[in-house]
């Protein structure tokens, strides 16, 4: 995987634009406006820190009290995660 310095490509400006999280998402990642890439990283850090991946199927994430309002259900797949989180960004 080439880095941006080696390949000469610039990161997509849309991914680097700071976005403000909703109050629901801010409970998980904090209040500050951060780029979409950082939002995803922080959500995954939270999931790993609280051991919320389903032990039987690691592709599923079990919601705790903070994630349930964000997801709208008790369990989501990692593929749904970005879509659900995006709805909480402005």
Topology, please?
Blueprint: H1 4-7, H2 13-16, H3 23-29, H4 36-49, E1 60-62, H5 67-71, E2 75-77, H6 78-86
Antiparallel strand pairs: 1-2
Summarize the structure.
Its EC number is 5.99.1.2. The longest helix is centred in the middle third of the chain and has 14 residues, at 36-49.
Task: Report the top-level CATH class.
Answer: Mainly Alpha
Q: How many distinct folded domains? A: 1
Q: How far apart are the termini?
A: 30 Å
SS field, number of helical segments: 6
| CATH fold name | MDM2
Q: If strands are numbered along the chain, what order do they take across the biggest sheet?
A: 1-2
Q: Which sheet architecture does the biggest sheet show?
A: 2 strands, antiparallel
Q: In the CATH hierarchy, what is the architecture at level 2? A: Orthogonal Bundle
- Percentage of residues in DSSP E strands: 5-15%
Write down the overall mean pLDDT.
Answer: 89
Helix and strand content put the structural class at: mainly alpha
Bin the helical content.
Answer: 40-55%
> Would you identify the CATH H-level superfamily?
SWIB/MDM2 domain
One letter per element, helices H and strands E, the order comes to HHHHEHEH
Radius of gyration: 14 Å
Q: Residue ranges: pLDDT <50 for 5 or more in a row?
A: none
The outline comes out as globular
Number of strands: 2
Domain DM2: 14-90
Keywords: Isomerase
Pfam families: SWIB (PF02201)
EC number: 5.99.1.2
